[in-house]
Amino acid sequence: MTKSASIEDAKAALRNEAAARRDALSADVRKAAAEAIAAREFPLAIESGKVVSGFMPLKTEINPLPLLRKLAEAGATLALPVVAGRGKPLVMRVWRWGEPLAEGVWGIRQPKPEAAEVDPDILLVPLLAFDRAGNRIGYGAGYYDMTIARLRVKKPIAAIGIAFAAQEVPTVPATLGDEPLDLVLTEREVIDIKRPT
Mean of the per-residue pLDDT values for the chain? Predict the structure, then answer.
């Protein structure tokens, strides 16, 4: 077995374990965690017009909507992801709080095609598992890794994982194409990832 195949196998096993751990959290625990994250002071300055991309939660993902509402009230321009196709970075489109959404890939709610495309300054990133080095495991298609890499070439951005504390693991196996997070927000704490420059 090649090294990359063994890493992919480790990621697949971790993905399954992490999904099961997240699914085991009760609806009340999940709701309280999302509210706790939104209630805490956001770790970055939100000037009027700063673009923050969020996501519509799937399955038992933590719900970023309470935090997105707070950031919109602070002056942020909100955006949500749209899948542009397999092997392509996500397209982020402007979304105003309360605007109707269209149904996209996998039934994910997303802005309508006429919504303006933007490059976010801050990305709230969904995940299945994370570690304190800023590595994350998603669903395996690499959409966020491609998107973060594309944006980091263009301008300084902050990639912020939003998760339940129970999603933390000691180590996430990482490969060259994996883009590390800058921060992770859980209901317990803000984890600032110190990366070598």
Answer: 92
